[in-house]
Amino acid sequence: APLARSYHERVIDHYEKPRNVGSLNRQAANVGTGVVGAPACGDVMKLQIQVNEQTGVIEEAVFKTFGCGSAIASSSLATEWVKGKTLEEASAITNNEIATYLSLPPVKKHCSMLAEDAIKAAVRDLLDKREKGKTASA
Ligand code: FES
Ligand code: FES
């Protein structure tokens, strides 16, 4: 199909076989949840990370995306990339790296931006939880 041909095969691959679709327990102390929307198109992405408290490393990452193929591919890729990383390392992932890897055209840049924002929001949520936990036990 002409539409399929205009997309990079990595986008198609992640779109057809999205990795790590799902949900984690939002209430869990070691789970961070990021929900972000793209004002430009109304698409919404939820990305969750689960950290191993012993190692500080992200051991699980899942997503649910209501949006275009590029947004689904970007979030799928993001869950793969954050796994095995620390929160700091995960926060350093940029939309440019995602867009470059998936060869997203300029008009689809905001789709990868959604993934970067979702990662950062999930990390922030987890750090907020930790802060509150400290306050609660102080
Ligand atoms: Fe969001 Fe493309 S405009 S699906
Ligand atoms: Fe809006 Fe992709 S996230 S078109």
From TrEMBL:
GO molecular function, one term: 2 iron, 2 sulfur cluster binding
Domain NIF system FeS cluster assembly NifU N-terminal intervals: 7-130
Principal localisation: mitochondrion
GO cellular component: mitochondrial matrix
The family this protein is said to belong to: Belongs to the NifU family.
Residue numbers of the full-length protein present here: 35 to 172 of 172
Protein name: Iron-sulfur cluster assembly protein
Subcellular compartments: Mitochondrion matrix
BP GO terms, sorted: iron-sulfur cluster assembly
Cofactor list: [2Fe-2S] cluster
Keywords, sorted A to Z: 2Fe-2S, Iron, Iron-sulfur, Metal-binding, Mitochondrion, Transit peptide
Task of the protein: Scaffold protein for the de novo synthesis of iron-sulfur (Fe-S) clusters within mitochondria, which is required for maturation of both mitochondrial and cytoplasmic [2Fe-2S] and [4Fe-4S] proteins.
